[in-house]
Amino acid sequence: MRVTMEHREATGIAFGENAYYVDTTVRFSEEERAIIQARGLGSQGAAAGYRSKIPSDAALELPAYLRAFGPMAVAISALVGFFMSGPLGFLLFLGAAGGWAYGYIAPILHAKAIKKHIVEVRHIMSNPAFSFYAPTPAHAKGLAHEVTTQLTELKGLITDSTELGAALTFEL
């Protein structure tokens, strides 16, 4: 197994909002691929981490308010649009309707971000590259150490799966 790890910094949209990633590439040897296929190790977890930044508490709470007050905002914007016949009223209505819809869509998006992503062996065999998010360079270094430990355990599992265990007799 050949593992390559690179640390990457991505500049965010807001000033000073950088994201750090640990890009990992895992290449199995032909012997390891044969063992994985023969022993059915494709569903084993190889590494785990977050793909993107975890939303803040405010971002997690906002959709509930948008769902609660969305109908009222849509109704008010429709009234304002009726009395202010023009593009401003229509834009206000679209904004209110979009906010109300976002209140239902955001929890689905946040659920994906909060869930830790587990990379399985079969995914690595078809696509050997994966990336995990870290909030700071120090966290990225710790994450790289965690991924290294997880991949070392995977290598041990593959190695131990080459042959069946020998017969063992003992007294207790």
What this model shows, in words?
- It is a single chain.
- The protein is α+β, with helices and mostly antiparallel strands and 172 residues long.
- It has two domains: 2-50 and 116-160, no CATH class; 57-111, no CATH class.
- Helices cover 55% and strands 20% of the residues.
- The chain has helices spanning 30-39, 57-83, 87-114, 121-126, 137-160; strands at 2-11, 18-27, 45-49, 117-120, 129-134.
- Helix 2 packs antiparallel against helix 3 (87-114).
- The protein starts with a strand and ends in a 12-residue tail after the last helix.
- 15% of the residues are buried.
Continuous helix count: 5
Percent of residues in beta strands: 15-25%
Outline the biggest β-sheet.
3 strands, antiparallel
Specify the structural class: alpha+beta
Per the principal axes of the C-alpha atoms, what is the gross shape? Answer: elongated
Spatial strand arrangement across the major sheet: 1-2-5
| End-to-end separation | 39 Å
Gyration radius from CA atoms, angstroms = 25 Å
Helix content: 55-70%
Low-confidence stretches: none
Order of helices and strands: EEHEHHEHEH
Find the count of extended strands (DSSP E, 2+ residues): 5
Number of individual domains = 2
Q: Give the rounded overall mean pLDDT.
A: 88
Brief write-up:
The chain has 172 residues and is α+β, with helices and mostly antiparallel strands. The protein has helices at 30-39, 57-83, 87-114, 121-126, 137-160; strands at residues 2-11, 18-27, 45-49, 117-120, 129-134. It has 5 helices and 5 strands.
